[in-house]
Amino acid sequence: MNHFYIKEKVFIIFHLGTFSRNLRNELKNPKKFYFYDNGVRNALIANFRQPELRQDIGALWENWIIAERQKYLMNSQNWANQYYWRTKGQQEIDYIEEKNGMLYCYEFKWNTNNKAKLPKTFSNAYPNHEFQVIHSGNFEDFVLIE
After folding, report:
1. What residue spans define the domains of the chain?
2. With contact defined as beta carbons under 8 Å apart, do 65 and 139 qualify?
3. Which of 15, 77, 96, 108 could form a disulfide with 31 if both were Cys (CB 3.0 to 4.6 A apart)?
4. What are the tens digits of pLDDT across the range 110-127?
């Protein structure tokens, strides 16, 4: 039994699969793993510095926001298929939810000044979508249940 499987079964990590509808350049099999608790992630890499001192703040933010979204969806019983998207040319969307035939695409940026655009490859192939950038200034509606 592999160690990723065990860690998923005891709720230490979870994974997102790739979103792919047969475009030739889309990645189809890799998984991205996330920790439910960033404290476990920080302990494993032995880094407990303040956010402003972190070199990995983008990865830390992405992990936290996706984990919190997982909890939000479970607690609100708001079910959606969850993915990320990447091409062989390294175009990427951090997170996709598929609900009722619609794709909701999200890019996560720690810095509120960082801009992001939906890759044209994706928007041309999948016209039925919405896109939003989630950053440290607007994340509340994305992860909090009212």
Report:
1. 3-19+26-143
2. yes
3. 15
4. 999 988 999 999 999 999
